[in-house]
Write a structure and sequence with these properties.
Elements (H helix, E strand, L loop, with lengths): L15 E9 L8 E8 L4 E5 L6 H8 L8 E8 L2 E2 L5 H10 L1 E4 L3 H4 L6 H13 L3 H14 L16 H13 L5 E5 L7 H18 L2 E6 L2 H7 L2 E6 L2 E7 H6 L4 H8 L39 H5 L4 E3 L7 E3 L14
Helix pairs in contact: 4-5, 5-6, 6-7
Length: 337
């Protein structure tokens, strides 16, 4: 695991600060995001993990106000001090260009296959900052060098490079505007294991070199452990546990976190069948009562089905929070180091 960066000074505001984020979609019985609180420091990495449908991607897209049609949103999302949810269109466009940028899951779906990579990299800079073509080309070459690609890539088409190289191009594109915040939405899912490791190492290096905050959205707990300073575990649109990566993976305190770790393949795991998390996440068409994880939790009691748990601190572990009625008696088995 990468050594975590030194914590920021107490009086330095986070580059991303989400408070009480609630998002509803049409024809659903409950919020898709239900009171999400999350912060990312400059130069730090927060991993947002959980099963498909937990709300990870919607959380990251909400940061750029890339909301689904008909969505209604409450709460506050501040990026470098600006409230994204209230920004007028022109300022929102400027924020997306120079303050925050997203690395999408599938680079081939995000890049026009009929245009050269150099055009893709320089287009936004030329249109939004009116930079001369020569200046934009120079900046593109610098960003390709930062992600370990040669200048010759600028003249190639997307079909002429590998998936791993194309994801590096996406990262270079995200860095073109010198953003304070990077949002990586399952940025390694479409890659092979070797390319995944290369991209994770690259992101870890870039956050140190450029002081960029990183929200790393993934379902892969191994990758989260490798890159993050802090981890937020999401279930049914809520963050059920959050803490330092070291503490959370070594001593998970929420039964959902423990179950996810138990179901993660490990080289040092005992022989036999891999543990499985039985059941399915709750349907958005069904209103929730009580703890959303209760139907799948072996530790659930009557109160779990009747009352949603509030967030509370884990004793003796500063910054480690969990939402479980039985936090006083539940302690998960050791996970990843």
């Amino acid at each position: 695991m990468n050594a975590p960066l030194a914590p920021p000074a107490r009086d330095v505001p986070p580059v991303l600060d989400i408070r009480g984020l609630r998002l509803r979609l049409p024809h659903t019985a409950r919020p898709v995001l239900d009171g999400v609180d999350l912060a990312v420091a400059a130069g730090g990495t927060v991993a947002l993990v959980g099963e498909s449908g937990s709300g990870k991607t919607l959380t990251s897209r909400s940061v750029l106000r890339l909301l689904p049609p008909g969505a209604t949103v409450e709460g506050r999302i501040e990026v470098a001090g600006a409230d994204v949810l209230t920004l007028p269109p022109q300022q929102l466009r400027a924020l997306r260009t120079s303050t925050a940028a997203m690395i999408f899951q599938d680079p081939r779906a995000a890049i026009n296959p009929l245009r050269r990579i150099g055009d893709f990299l320089t287009e936004s800079l030329r249109l939004n900052t009116k930079a001369p073509a020569a200046e934009a080309d120079e900046r593109a070459g610098e960003m390709l060098d930062a992600v370990g690609l040669p200048p010759a890539v600028l003249r190639r088409y997307p079909s002429q490079v590998s998936g791993g190289m194309l994801q590096r191009v996406m990262i270079a594109a995200a860095l073109m505007g010198e953003p304070a915040l990077l949002l990586a939405d399952e940025a390694t899912t479409a890659l092979d294991v070797t390319s995944q490791a290369e991209v994770v190492a690259l992101l870890a290096d870039l956050r140190t070199r450029f002081g960029t905050g990183l929200l790393f959205v993934t379902h892969d707990l191994g990758l989260a452990a490798a890159i993050s300073d802090r981890v937020c575990v999401m279930y049914a649109g809520r963050i059920v546990e959050s803490g330092s990566a070291e503490a959370l993976f070594a001593r998970p305190r929420h039964p959902y976190t423990s179950a996810l770790l138990a179901a993660t393949p490990r080289l040092d795991a005992p022989r036999g069948r891999l543990a499985a998390l039985e059941g399915q996440p709750p349907d958005l068409r069904t209103e929730l009562t009580g703890c959303p994880f209760a139907p799948r939790c072996a530790s659930a009691t009557a109160v779990c089905a009747e009352q949603a748990p509030g967030e509370r601190a884990v004793p003796g572990e500063p910054g480690h929070l969990m939402a479980c009625h039985h936090s006083d008696r539940f302690e998960g088995s050791p996970g990843h180091d």
